[in-house]
Amino acid sequence: MQYKSKLPNVSTNIFSIMSALANQHNALNLSQGFPNYPSSQKLNDLVNNAMNTGYNQYAPMPGNLDLLTAISNKYQLLYNNSYHPEKEITVTSGASQAIFTIISTFIRPNDEVIIFTPAYDCYEPAIELNGGKTITIQLSAPDYGVNWETVKSKISSKTKMIIINSPHNPSGTIWSETDMLQLQDLTKNTDIIVLSDEVYEHIIFDGEQHQSVCLFNDLKQRSFITASFGKTFHNTGWKIGYCCAPEYLMSEFRKAHQFNVFCVNHPMQKGLADYMQDSKTYTSLPNFFQQKRDLFLSLISESRFKIKPSQGTYFQVLDYSEITGEYDVDFAKRLTKDFGIASIPLSVFNENDKDDKVLRFCFAKTDETLVKATEIICKI
């Protein structure tokens, strides 16, 4: 058969490559972003109870109402803000599906979408599949700060969407209130939709506050928030997330969502709804993950890597420029094969594979795993 690929430049992603390499060489896998400790037994029991009490048929297309209400209550508690549970929130098959559906709903051929690189790798393929054009703004290590004059210069009449991500994967940085106000000012009185990837909203450190788009009134009126229960509650394999937006945007989203996914695993939705009745299930997370970050950093403080502590997410970027001048992909592969530890090179997320000589390590691991990993890192 003859066909023309819609994604001719896409190959196996770096997460699959590094995880496969880790398995092949029996290496500690600090590459892909998933915990190696169990989901809460209480949450598991609540899901099991939902199955046993009859939540085994299709959920309503937007989501189980108890879960939609729990999500709405969370925004009220954390941000003193609200999304209508039945009109402005939709449960999705993970955050990636929400992101793909948002882009598919609003981006047409030749529309331009601004993203900030290094960027999570699901953004650009979705734009390309829908005929859009990705406009990249490259951020640089170690601060990964945004030059707002550059952003302003990239906005044109063709700009239909801006995708932001804070706390930021892969760099572990966060956007400030000033950043959000700059974004609000640049998009005000335009038709630009903001897609705010906030999957790590509960994983933020050192007393900082997450600057959600819902805190900024004009931004909220033009924005989608995407979020992930997998990242929040340590069960990435469940693939359940959600998105929030004003009703006029959400109604368009649901037109596509109903034919793409229709609805999401019902007993898991009910279990999550019951679990979230206790707000400590998510308000305790910053302290939980900061303890892991601090343990990881304390144990590698004497290593040859240069360290700028992660501000959020469960990733830590380490600068290896004083160790070797190798291309980061080559160095990451060598560490996996020769030292037995897998990480993620950041150049693959950058414009033109820009190599800042940094690797990303996931510290959402048991303390035992982190101790073993840091012993290896200190030998490099």
UniProtKB/TrEMBL annotation:
Keyword Lipoprotein: no
InterPro entries: Aminotransferase_I/II_large (IPR004839), Kynurenine-oxoglutarate_AT (IPR051326), PyrdxlP-dep_Trfase (IPR015424), PyrdxlP-dep_Trfase_major (IPR015421), PyrdxlP-dep_Trfase_small (IPR015422)
One of the Pfam families matching this protein, by short name: Aminotran_1_2
Keywords tagged on the record: Aminotransferase, Pyridoxal phosphate, Signal, Transferase
Protein name per UniProt: Aminotransferase class I/II-fold pyridoxal phosphate-dependent enzyme
Aminotransferase class I/classII large domain residues: 27-374
Signal peptide as annotated in the record: 1-22
Cofactor(s), by name: pyridoxal 5'-phosphate
GO terms assigned for molecular function: transaminase activity
Species this chain originates from: Winogradskyella immobilis
